[in-house]
Specification:
heterodimer; A: alpha/beta; D-Maltodextrin-Binding Protein, domain 2; 11-stranded mixed beta sheet; globular; B: mainly alpha; 23 helices
């Protein structure tokens, strides 16, 4: 039976050879996590000035790929020796992975589409504090006081509509109008796996309480709202006239408009006694035990730099948090609106209750 | 499972070391069974609160949805699969030789990719097809809505019927003319003969195909997620993307695996009841039935199936790919994710699938050899265990591997090897079946001759048995390669950052609504899949 055994050994050899041969290209070897780094809570820079940043930078992104890729490409131009490995998914899916990987960290940077997820993860000790260069220019409410995460761009939850199908006088004025039977089967939204939708529900729980939020969600379900996996589907469907209304982040309206569709935007709940416009912010954080902290720090620096902020603003119609970065002129300035006041730190505590609520109602 | 009784050894041939082969087969069986055991333990060990939450509403909806879809898809695929097999094998349908190929080719198209195409074409409002109709006729027509149960059924039938087609076509081909002639002699009409004699003899082949389809439906993720029909598999993904707690996903996985095992068991029961034996020596092919006036309806039907399941998807993908590659903006996105480009996705798909195919055949060799040469309860049990992957949907294998690897083998965590392991576990059954049949085909007398000529058992195995069985084993490997290439849910969950396969790339773009960007990866995936499929069809002598 030695032949059989040698067959097994040769199999093992082949395995190893494949692994080695494809080394740089296919097999991802995590750069050794800095030994003992977890306890070194130094927000200091690892890089010395002038030294080129190299190696692999692993980014977990809750922002969908097309919305993060332009910034990554610009960053790569500035740091050509960094190789970016991107894994995009939903915020909570990646958050789950980060929690599970705590003893064995794989990612360097985490990017989310809202603040609640980063705040909950920060409380679980997943992140390493870092204060990006120039982040003192950002509004204080968009930086974690302990520097565990930093806000990037601001987005508003709006209603977009197909202007060929809806008359101006019929337009909804509030997100609560979406449960009106006159829109039955005419509304599209993102479902329970979408971070921005989760955050909206969490924000509403904080503003209005469990009962009113539940009634609203149940109202959406009863009104046969179609829940898509993401907002790109929603905006395209509204643009094509498949639905009259869509509940989206504001930039999806602008992206659809740029494609030439007949769409309009409503900034809801501006009236007396209404909750105000719900906004949130995308955010970035460095993972504790990151294999390549200097690249991670450079990436965060880049994201809050004027150049990085303007890429988000220009390509994606977002509100940059950095005052020096200009938003696109066609964007309605947020200053003109009454905004709902939500505290991310508190809403994060209620995240579990938000998931319970969505599951109880069977939100798709 | 270690102590081998001497009863294993045929008299006069004590040089083959059965205990060692047995041990190897046992180890492989253990490897195959661990994820299954682990997920069931995890599910049973989950908190009562999580169970209660699920049992209140979710579980029953999911159970109903999943079973309903499994039944509709299996039925639809059986009707189309057996129907077209009869047309190409037993009737005088014009062009049946080409149809044999075309009807099997949809196996190269993952169902979710076909789903993307049909969804874009047929969306009730905004779909290309209703729009075209409106432009042509001026009337807005409510199209067929491809979403929900019937949409999912439609898509899954289109891309699953080839399993049943291939298996029943093979059964039709091996059918002996004398059986039908006997029936006709006894005064049965053609129709009565078909229902009372032909169909029952085909039953094992059809039942095996139905089993494959039903288990595939349970494991299907992409299509049901795309068409927004919630089954266990998609619900598990929703759980994973939701709360920071994986017990609900474990519970759903446990129930899903039990469901799959019940289906497997039911098929074994059906298969075990009756036997049909044909005498090989007097075998003659049965005469083709003349279709007469039914010729053109039959032709239309067959062409329709081929159009919807093969020509339309491939044409649309090709058109989109051109569009994507010609527009500089889109092509930039198509070619890159992070620092990784198109070449890396293709290479990843190829090497992981090839390695999975190689490993699956290697690992199942001991069990296949035992069951072919020493068929008894023990060897059959081991072979069954190696086939347990059939019953474990990709998402469940991925979930249990995530748990196991992260706890016990952290150095493997987030490496592509875990993806390969998932492919091997999931697709090993195809390798077992392939190798088993291939070795059984090699007559034991050839091995005895080798032994008598003074060769040792292992020399005989490597010089005689293996070379003769190799083509059959390659077929098993090709099948593993093909299915690994198309695999989506396990790859999605297990891939390390920056490690995307073609299937993952197509999915990530499509799920975001960027169908044009998804097309090049999808098209390439289909073209690569066509290679092993062509090899398999050649073996099936479909081209004859």
């Amino acid at each position: 039976m030695t032949t059989y055994r040698s067959a097994w050994i040769s199999l093992l050899m082949v395995l190893l050879l494949t692994a080695c041969a494809s080394g740089g290209q296919a097999i991802y070897t995590p750069s050794t996590p800095a030994a003992g780094a977890p306890d070194a809570e130094t927000p200091d820079k690892f890089e010395s000035p002038g030294e080129a940043i190299t190696g692999k930078l692993v980014i977990y992104s809750g922002r969908s790929e097309p919305l993060i890729q332009p910034v990554i490409e610009a960053f790569e131009l500035a740091h050509p020796q960094v190789e970016v490995l991107l894994k995009a998914g939903s915020n909570s899916e990646l958050a789950n992975a980060l929690i599970e990987e705590q003893p064995n960290p794989q990612a360097d940077v985490f990017i989310t589409t809202e603040l609640f997820t980063v705040q909950s993860l920060a409380e679980q000790g997943v992140f390493q504090p870092y204060q990006p260069e120039g982040s003192d220019q950002l509004p204080a409410e968009f930086i974690d006081p302990q520097n565990r995460w930093v806000g990037l761009t601001r987005r508003a939850r709006v209603i977009m509509y197909n202007s060929e199908l809806v008359k101006p006088e019929d337009l909804p004025r509030s997100i609560f109008d979406l449960v009106d039977p006159k829109w039955k089967g005419q509304v599209a939204a993102a479902g329970s796996t979408n971070g921005s939708m989760q955050a909206q529900i969490a924000a509403m729980r904080q503003l209005l309480g469990e009962k009113a939020t539940e009634e609203w969600l149940q109202g959406l379900i009863d009104n046969q709202v179609t829940f898509f996996g993401g907002h790109t589907d929603v905006r395209k469907a509204v643009g094509a006239g498949e639905f009259k209304l869509g509940l989206v982040n504001h930039y999806y309206f602008y992206l659809q408009q740029a494609e030439g569709s007949p769409v309009g935007i409503i900034f809801p709940d501006q009236g007396e006694g209404q909750i105000g416009l719900i906004t949130n912010a995308s955010a970035a954080a460095i993972v504790r035990g990151a294999g390549n902290p200097s690249a991670a720090q450079a990436f965060l620096d880049y994201l809050v730099s004027r150049e990085g902020q303007e890429i988000f603003a220009k390509l994606n119609y977002e509100y940059p948090l950095l005052p020096a970065a200009a938003a696109l002129p066609e964007l309605e300035p947020l200053e003109g609106f009454r905004l709902a006041e939500v505290e991310p730190a508190k809403a994060a505590l209620e995240f579990k209750a938000t998931f319970d609520l969505m599951e109880r109602l069977g939100l798709p | 499972m270690c102590a081998a009784p001497t009863a294993f050894l045929p008299a006069g041939n004590r040089r083959i070391n059965v205990p060692q082969i047995l041990m190897a087969a046992g180890l492989v069986g253990l490897f195959a069974a661990i994820p299954l055991a682990y997920i069931i333990v995890r599910a049973l060990g989950a908190e009562a609160e999580a169970w209660n939450r699920l049992l209140q509403v979710r579980m029953w909806i999911l159970l109903r949805n999943t079973l309903l879809l499994a039944v509709t898809v299996t039925m639809g695929s059986t009707v189309i699969g057996v129907g077209t097999a009869w047309l190409t094998e037993r009737s005088d349908l014009p062009g049946r030789k080409i149809f044999r190929w075309l009807l099997a080719m949809p196996l190269a198209i993952p169902a979710y990719i076909g789903g993307i195409v049909h969804l874009t074409l047929m969306r009730p409002r905004g779909g290309l097809f209703p729009k075209l109709l409106e432009d042509l006729t001026g009337i807005s027509m409510p199209g067929f809505n491809p979403l929900g149960l019937w949409g999912a059924t439609f898509i899954l039938v289109l891309f699953s019927y080839p399993y049943i087609y291939l298996l029943s076509a093979a059964a039709f081909r091996s059918l002996n003319a004398s059986i039908e002639e006997a029936s006709r002699t006894m005064g049965r009409s053609t129709r009565q003969t078909f229902w009372q004699v032909v169909l029952p003899t085909l039953r094992p082949g059809i039942a095996a195909g139905m089993l494959l389809v039903a288990l595939d439906v349970l494991a299907e993720y992409g299509t049901v997620a795309l068409l927004r029909y919630e089954t266990f598999t998609s619900a598990i993904f929703v759980q994973l993307a939701g709360r920071f707690d994986r017990s609900a996903a474990s519970i759903l996985s446990g129930v899903l695996v039990v469901l799959a095992m019940l289906i497997l068991w039911a098929e074994l029961r059906v298969q075990g009841q009756r036997r049909y034996t044909q005498m090989e020596s007097q075998w003659r092919p049965a005469a083709a039935v003349s279709l007469g006036k039914w010729k053109y309806p039959a032709l239309t039907l067959t062409l329709g199936v081929i159009c919807l399941s093969l020509l339309v998807p491939v044409t649309v993908l090709a058109a989109w790919s051109l569009q994507a590659l010609l527009s500089p903006e889109a092509s930039n996105g198509v070619l890159r994710s992070g620092s990784r480009g198109f070449g890396s996705y293709t290479w990843n798909s190829l090497w992981t699938s090839a390695m999975a195919a190689f490993l699956a055949v290697q690992l199942t060799l001991p069990a296949a050899y035992l069951v072919a040469r020493y068929p008894n309860r023990m060897s059959r049990f081991l072979s069954r265990i190696c086939q347990v992957g059939y019953a474990i949907p990709g998402v469940v294998i991925a979930l249990s591997l995530l748990f196991i690897v992260n706890r016990s083998f952290p150095f493997l965590y987030a490496t592509p090897l875990v993806v390969v392991i998932a492919y091997v576990l999931r697709h090993m059954p195809q390798a077992v079946r392939g190798s088993e049949a291939a070795i059984a085909q090699v007559s034991a007398t050839l091995e005895e001759a080798g032994l008598m000529l003074g060769r040792t058992a292992k020399q005989t195995f490597f010089k005689v048995t293996l070379p003769l069985a190799l083509p059959g084993m390659l077929a098993g490997a090709a099948l593993v390669f093909l299915t690994s290439l198309k695999e989506l849910p396990a790859t999605l969950l297990l891939r390390p950052a920056g490690f995307d396969t073609l299937a993952v790339r197509a999915w990530i773009w499509a799920v975001d609504g960027s169908y044009v960007q998804a097309a090049p990866a999808a098209l390439l995936l289909v073209l690569i899949s066509a290679v092993p499929l062509t090899f398999l069809l050649h073996r099936e002598k479909l081209s004859a």
